[in-house]
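Dear colleagues,

As part of the handover before I leave the project, I'm documenting each prediction I ran so the next person doesn't have to rerun anything. This entry is a single chain, and its sequence is reproduced below.
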Amino acid sequence: PADLIGFIEPNDEIANQHDMLFGNMLAQAEALGFGKSREEVQAEDVEERLVPHRTFPGNRPTSLIVAPRLTPSVLGQLIALYEHKVFTQGSIWGINSFDQWGVELGKVLATRVIGELTDGNEPDLEHDSSTNAQIRRYREAKRTAG
C-alpha cells in the first residue's frame, strides 16, 4: 500500500510545475490501481522484446490524500493521522508501537550524543564515522554562529 499526498494550491509561483507534479501523482495512483496489461502494450505496436518491461500488474492499494494547501495545521493533521495509524495497527497486532526496544537504544545513545554536542571540552568521539562527522559539524556551526 502507498499513500500519495498532494495539495491543490502551490506554495510557490511556479504553477506549471505544480500542475505537472499533481498530474504525476494522479497518474501514479492510476498506474498502481489499474496497471497496464500485456494486451494493452501489444496494441501500441511495441517491439515484442520490450513488452515485459512495459507491463505493470496494477491492483496495488493506494490512498490519495489531497488538501487545499500545505500549512502548519495540515502538516500537523497528517502527522496525527500517521500516529493514529501506527497506534491502530499496533493494537490490532498486539504490539505497543510506542515502546519498542529500538526506541530505548535511541534514548541511551541520544543521552550520550547530546552531552557531546554541548561539551566544550571536545571529548573523544566514539561513534561511527558518520555520527562523529555530524557532531563535529554541529559543534563548528554552533561556534561560528555564536
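Helices lie at 15-34, 38-42, 51-54, 72-93, 101-118, 129-145. The CA atoms of residues 30 and 58 lie 8 Å apart.

All the best with the project,
I.
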